[in-house]
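Box S1 | Example of a co-folding query
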Amino acid sequence: MAGPRKGDDVVIDDPNAREAEYWATSGRSWIEHEAFQDQLLRPVSDVLLGLTGFQAGQRVLDIGCGTGAHALAVSEAVGPTGEVVALDISEPLLNRAAERFTKARARVHTLLGDAQIADLPNGHDVATSRFGVMFFADPAAAFANIARALRPGGRMVFAAWAPVAANPWWRLPLNIAKARLGSPPPTPPNAPGPMGLADIGFLEGQLIDAGFTEFAVTPTTITLGYIGGPAEMAALSIRIGPAARLIRLFEARQADVDAIEEDLARAYEDYVDDGVFAMPATLNIIDVRVP
Ligand SMILES: C[S@@+](CC[C@H](N)C(=O)[O-])C[C@H]1O[C@@H](n2cnc3c(N)ncnc32)[C@H](O)[C@@H]1O
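Box S1 (continued) | Returned holo structure for S-adenosylmethionine
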């Protein structure tokens, strides 16, 4: 594999060096809370699998695979004659994914690299991603690189978050953390991050510039439930996700962190129905092709 990644030594001329650094460190929280992420995000994989309609024997590239849960689901769908390449910029996350693929005896190969510049193997039938493509410094360049990894007529189908306002999973932790700690410095529109591709007009432009055609978007609202309940979810929210990002950014005092956790637990109570905690999640499923 070409590309400048080597462990945690972030090469400065990598256009995504900051994201690489972020995912090398915060990736450890993802690994720690892997079971929670797997349970919470499984419905997103189910939607992607349903809309993509993977066929046995297909060759698939999973971009930003994290600890590999989505790649494993895709691997099951393409069966033993298919093959999945799971790409990620974060070495700790990819190492964990590799452990899981080996344990599951899945036909999934890992590739450490930046999707924007890595020398990707070509000829894939489908590129897929569950929330792994919103972090590129130059989305059009990254999507063009992914397009080159597809066979003629190949598809890319991925999930990206819709705006914060439509997503209590983001809105509540963000607003509650902001109320205690203040707002982070403003970021330019469409900056890399979880909401980096929430603007559909911007996203379509980037994909067209990258050489994709037949742009189709399916806005999708699903319910994501967490068996742990509001208090446990609040405890997780101060370690992972948007509130955790602000807590780290402001190096928040313990008293503020405790207050954020309490406020969040109260806010999450509004989403308990019949003893089950679940909140809606609005995302966009994007489906494009290379000519
Ligand atoms: C929100 S996580 C999603 C992980 C996984 N797809 C899942 O659903 O569990 C985003 C992932 O994208 C990866 N990532 C971010 N920028 C990347 C890049 N330029 N190239 C490859 N992977 C990247 C991160 O390391 C992280 O694993």
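Residues 1-11 have pLDDT under 50 and may be disordered. The radius of gyration is 19 Å.
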